[in-house]
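lol so apparently i was supposed to do this last week
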Amino acid sequence: MKKQNIFIDFDGTICFDRFWRLLPLEIRSKIGKFLFQDNLQLFKEWMRGKRSSEEIHHMISEECGLNYNMMWEHFVRGCQTVSVSEDILKALLDCKKNNTLILITDNLDCFNRFVKKELNLSNYFHYIFNSYDYGRLKEDPVQEGLFKKIIDLNKFDLHNSVLLDNDAQNCELFNQLGGKSFLIKDKEDTVSTLNMLRKGNNVSPLLGYSRINSK
Ligand SMILES: [Mg+2]
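anyway here it is w/ magnesium ion bound
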């Protein structure tokens, strides 16, 4: 039987740690407000590869009056020490035996520079794709988005593909392209979904859609 392609998101699906988590709460709050409330477009530009981690931290430093070196050291260390649970790593390895595993993430240059290597992700995935390298995000219009770009470039058969992602909009976009999605709720959900897919049996489309609709 043809191997099934299993696309898997990173943040909120296999990893639940934040890159800035080692900084004191007060500083994290300032960074969060600057990046995710006041300058979300800037953050998206970063995920599209138009900015570097250093450039963004210099901006935060200037705008929020925070010490660059202190922030930078905590940020890098935070990236280098994010974790994926043993349960998930085991489920990934089991799944990899009979399926093609594809990590697909809206992410930043620090993912390529620090996270990927420290977590030895290439041991768990056949392919790793980061929005930073492709200039587009999963949430972009479906024909121009990251999923479509990666599928076309690598000639993945969508009708033999599933997605595990904690974002409902991403799941809907993947379905629109012709795949099936599993909306992930938490760590346990990731493990049980991977275990269900492990044997390489094609899942029923109904199963995938029902999971989306059940949220
Ligand atoms: Mg996610």
